[in-house]
Amino acid sequence: MNPYDFLFDLALILLSTKVLGLFTRKIHMPQVVGALLAGLLLGPAVLNILKETELIHDLSEIGVIVLMFCAGMETDMEELKKTGKKSFLIALIGVLVPLAGGFAVAYFFNKPGVIDSDASCTLFLQNVFIGVILTATSVSITVETLKELGKLKTRSGNAILGAAIIDDILGIIALTVITSMADSSVNIGIVLLKIVGFFVFALAAGFLFYKIYEKWSGSAPRGLHRHAIIAFVFCLIMSYVAEVWFGVADITGAFIAGLIISKTQKTQFLASKFDTLSYLLLSPVFFASIGLKVELPNMTASIVLFAVILVVVAILTKVIGCGLGAKVCGYQNYQCWRIGVGMISRGEVALIVASKGAQLGLLGSAFLGPVVVVVVITTIITPILLKPVFRRGPVTVSPEMELIPESESLSRNYEELSKLRNGQYQEGEERPRR
């Protein structure tokens, strides 16, 4: 093997993910679907041109850390508090129902003689983990769809956005618990103690870092490269500490680091830098690497049936769970449908969780293909279903009555980041401090 083959591999990944990403965007689907398809086409599943090398694996690991760090930075905690109990209740039921549904499907299929798993953890933990994967909701995909429909600032859109953000936080907590239990030799009491210890450490270290970083970076009139570097150093250290010291998933540390950074004045500038880092290299490699892991020839009739049922359960449990939560919170039936459908998309969040589980022996290789199928189909179907459900509703309700005041909208953070990605902000220009 030529030692410089990695250069060609990276070039091929970047080109194919971009080309297919532009194609999927042209047909009104998120570019993440194109990146996934690129990995599937180039990998063992179809053309077998590329295989996952150590470099691709390491880059994808950094990529997932950066993605979760950015997700934390994009979470506006102050605005999230305003959504109150409604978003939390919608998210909570919208997590519990898919968790139970995913576990039930895995329980019937993940057993010797039906689908043989090569995962190292117990069957119970493997089944729970498949449920954890289904709890995820992709904020970015739903936001882009609602923006396209002009419904992001409606009451239904705000509920979807608030619930999706809390959904991700609850999913991170579930992932933290399940990954900490992956080592069967560790006592459950020790696991829970380590998790509590990590969050105590994160709170103390985060508060100290925030105070120092805010004072240091706030004295500069504009964002500087050194601010981005130190923020990235903090992200990597938090990821390392979470994984090595406390046995918690590294992406949990990255997400919390992002939440801490989101409180600073330089969030917009930092987002622009990490967007560039992620967009140019890390995200395409991560999403393509997921596709490279899938081997379709190994998908037996049982695995295909499992994939079909898992897709159906993934869709129904979100619609039922989040719709039920919305109904309990007093939303009208047409709004419950909108909220439930808006939470279907799993997107990159489910891929991140699945990738981490595969590394820790929580997800067998035979189940990765069905998970990718779930991600692709739910990502495609959400924009398709959102359009008709937002056309539903009583004729007596005008669009203006559905709109919410700007001060109550959670969409500002995502709209600003969208402007930044589209070049509508100048280099170094700061948004108003939250």
From TrEMBL:
The chain crosses the membrane at residues 32-50, 87-108, 128-146, 158-182, 188-212, 224-242, 248-264, 276-294, 300-324, 360-386. It is found in: Membrane. InterPro entries: Cation/H_exchanger_TM, Na+/solute_symporter_sf. GO terms for cellular component: membrane. Keywords: Antiport, Ion transport, Membrane, Sodium, Sodium transport, Transmembrane, Transmembrane helix, Transport. Pfam families: Na_H_Exchanger. Signal peptide: none annotated. The keyword Transmembrane applies. It is a multi-pass membrane protein. GO terms for biological process: proton transmembrane transport; sodium ion transport. GO terms for molecular function: antiporter activity. Residues 17-391 form the Cation/H+ exchanger transmembrane domain. Gene3D superfamilies: 1.20.1530.20. Belongs to the monovalent cation:proton antiporter 2 (CPA2) transporter (TC 2.A.37) family. This is Cation:proton antiporter. It comes from Diplocloster agilis.
